[in-house]
Amino acid sequence: MHTYNNKMIIRLLTLSIASTILVACEDQKQHKPWLDVPVQSYKQMKILTGAVTDEKGSVVDAKIKVEDSTGKVVAQTQLENSKNYSIEIPQGTTLPIVLTVSPKGSEEKLIAVVISSAVSSYDISPLTTKIAKRAKALGGYTYANMVMAADSTVGVPDANKTSTGFRGDPTKQYGGWH
Asked: What's the CA gap between 98 and 66, in Å, rounded?
């Protein structure tokens, strides 16, 4: 679970840093979106993989469907006794696409949004669901909205203020012990 959280935090930090740089460099005189990414599509069939987790842990029995931006189902699969999925996305599918997981026995759905044709591994969790919902509230599943949603959804401490992150003389940490 630590490895999953660390990978997710690294991915989200990368998105956060990118959004900060892009916002800082934005030309205030332009009226265009601050981040214009061309529409992407899969030039050939693409296999997406990942793991599905919820608040309780691994989701091992669920339906997964993939919809394009028009709501058309382009692919679907089933989780059976494994949290890991693999799903084929047809050639020509235009991004963004939404992966929706419907766990058996639960009304709560999990979602993840694919906005880049370069990435093929997407874990689906309550965090990805929260980011997707935030992006949709910002106006839709654009690259810019996904970056802003990730940045505003993940809380990262400003600095490591614990003694476990301290290197050096412990008597000088926090002004000394005397």
From this structure: 6
Question: Distance between CA 14 and CA 109 in Å, rounded?
Answer: 26
Predicted TM-score (pTM) of this structure: 0.68
Give per-residue pLDDT as tens, 91-135: 999 999 999 999 998 889 999 999 999 999 999 999 999 999 999
Structure tokens at 39: 């529409």
- The token pair at 50 is 């990942």
Q: Are 98 and 85 a contacting pair, CB within 8 Å?
A: no
CB atoms within 10 A of CB 133: 14
**What CATH number has the domain spanning 2-26+36-155?**
2.60.40.10
Q: Where are the alpha helices (DSSP H) in the chain?
A: 2-24, 126-137, 143-153
Please give the structure tokens belonging to residue 145.
């909205």
DSSP state of 110: E
Q: With contact defined as beta carbons under 8 Å apart, do 143 and 35 qualify?
A: yes
Q: What is the pLDDT of residue 171?
A: 45
Amino acid type, 51: A
CA–CA separation, 8 and 59 (whole Å): 18
Question: Where do the structural domains in the chain lie, given as residue ranges?
Answer: 2-26+36-155
Q: Which residues pair with 14 in a beta bridge?
A: none
Averaged pLDDT, 69-81: 94
